[in-house]
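Long-time lurker, finally posting.

We've been working with 5-methylthioadenosine/S-adenosylhomocysteine deaminase (Pseudodesulfovibrio mercurii) and I want a structural starting point before designing mutants. I don't trust myself to interpret raw outputs, so I'm hoping someone here can both generate the structure tokens and explain anything notable. Sequence follows.
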Amino acid sequence: MHASDFTATAPLACDLLVRADAVITQDDERRVLTDAGVAVADGLVLEVGDYADLDARYEPVQRLDMAGRMLLPGLVNGHTHLPMTLLRGFADDLPLMDWLQEHIWPVEAQLDEELLGIGARLGCAELIRTGCTAFLNGYFHEHVTGEAASACGLRAVLGEGFFAFPSPFFPTAEACWETIRTLQARFADDPLVRTAVTPHAAFTVPPELLEASYELAESLDIPWQTHLAESPTETSVCLGKYGMRPVEILRTRGLLSPRVTLHHCVDVDEREIARLAASGANVVHNPASNLKLCSGMSPVQDLLDAGVNVGLGTDGASSNNQLNMFRDMGLAALVGKVRHGDASAVGAQTALDMATRNSARCLGWPELGRIEAGYPADMIALDLSSPNLMPVFNHVSHAVYAATGMEVCMTMVAGEVLYLYGEFRTLDVGGLRREAARAAKWVRRASGK
Ligand SMILES: [Zn+2]
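Top reply, 14 upvotes:
Generated this for you. Predicted structure of 5-methylthioadenosine/S-adenosylhomocysteine deaminase:
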């Protein structure tokens, strides 16, 4: 026997071999494999394919038999404010401006790091439970959310939010820029946590500060994100203050580029859509939040048809009131049809693309959102024995239209299982319940309600 014969038949090593009834790969061909397996090593997918074939060739350290389930890439939340779980259900049924100015901002200004930590951990628990493995955040004292995500094993892009200066958080722009630089340095060696520059919006941050912050993002070579064109009311405010609509404010300052991720883009016209497409800027659609605050319905299919990369986000838990990407995926498809008067608008595959590959690009992390050899092993499993997922004709259809998120029975990031069959492996959920009750008392006191 020659050495080469031995090499050809020796089992291949891997850390983990996962078996499932089906794998929605979200690869370039959008293949859905049945009776499939995924081999994982060093946090990356080694190979995806027929399970019997992988089983014959690999000798894994561990096996995860998910027969009766389907795997899909971990969902990517393109826009959220994680610690706002603290304000879930605190102020409902209000339009955007009233909601922000009268109810949210006065309480937020008093939040301390301990409370933010509780909110961030609650948010992480909900993301893990509903199959989300990475998120783009925007809030204050972002190192707290970074530490929560890292401890839970989730991927996060942190956005230290700012308005005009002085503010309750930053006396000057330079103090804010320094905080962002420190944040980036603090997590430089953490493979799960990155940073983005995050001005709140074109109606709350003056154009010259938007521009200065963009230069900071360029110098640090990180994404730049902001809320934009969220509602017709915002457009009126921008027209009154600057004589320009929100997209024009950014365009005239040279702030539209592939580095940029814009949240909402509900009130955008045909010319603005063409300009967004030409610039390579990314857009995140937040259907539940837009509906709840009565902000309007984004022309998502028009944006996609024009060539804009449109991801999907939940927004914060106080304007949604969930961080469940499955609900927003379903809503994106349903609302898209009504917005365009066309039942074929925003189809199931499009909605799943938005929640995976497209959102990954919005995070500046394009290798996420797929199950493919050489890419991060971030994946989730849905239990196909749930009555609402039977029978199966089309796995993608079930993920978008039939699943609620509660069928998620496994969540994995970089090959590490964070949640399996009801058990959180990186979080103490009982402890979190007590902390949440304590935080609710504080919110009531702080709001004077
Ligand atoms: Zn938001």
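Before you design anything, note these points.
The domain at 3-73+379-413 is CATH 2.30.40.10 (Urease, subunit C; domain 1).
The chain has 16 helices and 16 strands.
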